[in-house]
Amino acid sequence: MYIWLILTVIFLILEGYTTALISIWFALAAGILTLTSGYIPDIMKQFYFFVALSFVFIIVTRPLSKKLLSKRKEKIESRIIGQTVEIKKVISSGEYETYLDGKHWKAKCDRELHIGDKARVLRIQGIKLILEKE
C-alpha cells in the first residue's frame, strides 16, 4: 500500500516539473492502487493492475487532453504573437530573455539584440519566443 502512495507522490512531483502531461496517468493509476491494494494482496497482481490502469488512462484520456492543450496553446499564441517585448537579458548570441504576459520567456532572434531593445513576437517555437527586431 505504501509503495503505491510513494509512487503517486513521485509521479505527481514529476508531472509538476514538466510542461506536458507525462506522468499524470501513472499517478492516477498508482493513486487507485493506493486505495485498492488492501483488496489485492499479491504484489504482482497489483503491478499488472497498475499497468492495465495506466494503459487505459493513456488510451482513453490522451486524445482528450491533447485536444484541450492545443486549444490552450492557440489562446496563448493568439494573445502573444504580434506583441512587442523588451530584451531583459542577453543569454548568448541570438538567445535572449524577456518578460511577457506575466512570465519570463527565453527568446531567439536572427539579428543581434541588446538589453533594452524592442522586438516583435513572430511565433512560439516550443517554449521559446521567436522575435524580429523592431
UniProtKB/TrEMBL annotation:
<feature type="domain" description="NfeD-like C-terminal">
    <location>
        <begin position="79"/>
        <end position="133"/>
    </location>
</feature>
<dbReference type="InterPro" id="IPR002810">
    <property type="entry name" value="NfeD-like_C"/>
</dbReference>
<keyword id="KW-0812">Transmembrane</keyword>
<protein>
    <recommendedName>
        <fullName>NfeD-like C-terminal domain-containing protein</fullName>
    </recommendedName>
</protein>
<dbReference type="GO" id="GO:0005886">
    <property type="term" value="C:plasma membrane"/>
</dbReference>
<dbReference type="InterPro" id="IPR012340">
    <property type="entry name" value="NA-bd_OB-fold"/>
</dbReference>
<keyword id="KW-1133">Transmembrane helix</keyword>
<dbReference type="Pfam" id="PF01957">
    <property type="entry name" value="NfeD"/>
</dbReference>
<keyword id="KW-0472">Membrane</keyword>
<feature type="transmembrane region" description="Helical">
    <location>
        <begin position="47"/>
        <end position="65"/>
    </location>
</feature>
<feature type="transmembrane region" description="Helical">
    <location>
        <begin position="7"/>
        <end position="35"/>
    </location>
</feature>
<dbReference type="InterPro" id="IPR052165">
    <property type="entry name" value="Membrane_assoc_protease"/>
</dbReference>
